[in-house]
């Protein structure tokens, strides 16, 4: 259990040095990291497909952790968290609630990317009282057009990356133009900044189950997003091949008073390519 008295401890604001912790709830041991000043409403980060704790861009996390208690965690069955990966986004949302409540929080802000954004939507629809503010990036709504094609694109890009000995995220997250390729390499390098206590990589069976959950989400009956009354910030690139950019616009239309930031000339990882622009926007949004 984490305490909220930080009078004697140095506040860590660098994700590279965030301590690795675990907490057990509902028969699952969740691996998580935390940093930033304790107290106030924490910002819980919901990670993307195939991702572990090591997949968060420190250039997004660190600026937020300057003034906020930041928590990242591995979904059930992923990385260092125990158990089996659920085959539905809704079950992943239930796990996230279990994890958040186990830490003793009854109100959180959520920063979500891609699959994490789907989990965040499912969570806020079912547990609206738990969420104060919502940041949805590189994601789309349940029943969103072409989300079920993620599976094919993912396998195709994993193959392309294998043939070129590069990281699949370079293909999946970034445009294959000069700016995109440079941004991709820089992003992958940033993910290597943490050298100690790195997380276990996701297993192929876990990835397959996550893809199945995304496919079902894409083919599911849309949720009534007009129920979302939380301040919501939506971000993406204008050329998202994984979760089509039009779905960010769709979310913006359906979530009342939401704000939309689209970065031109970037893909699924637009917020990472333009981290120097997006991080201050996110910080300002959370501070309001």
TrEMBL record:
Q: Which UniProt keywords apply?
A: Hydrolase
What are the recorded GO MF terms, alphabetically?
hydrolase activity
InterPro entries associated with the record? AB_hydrolase, AB_hydrolase_1, AB_hydrolase_fold
| Domain of life of the organism encoding this protein | Bacteria
Q: Where is the AB hydrolase-1 domain?
A: 43-272
Name of the featured protein: Alpha/beta hydrolase
What lineage, starting at the top, does this entry show? Answer: Bacteria, Bacillati, Actinomycetota, Actinomycetes, Micromonosporales
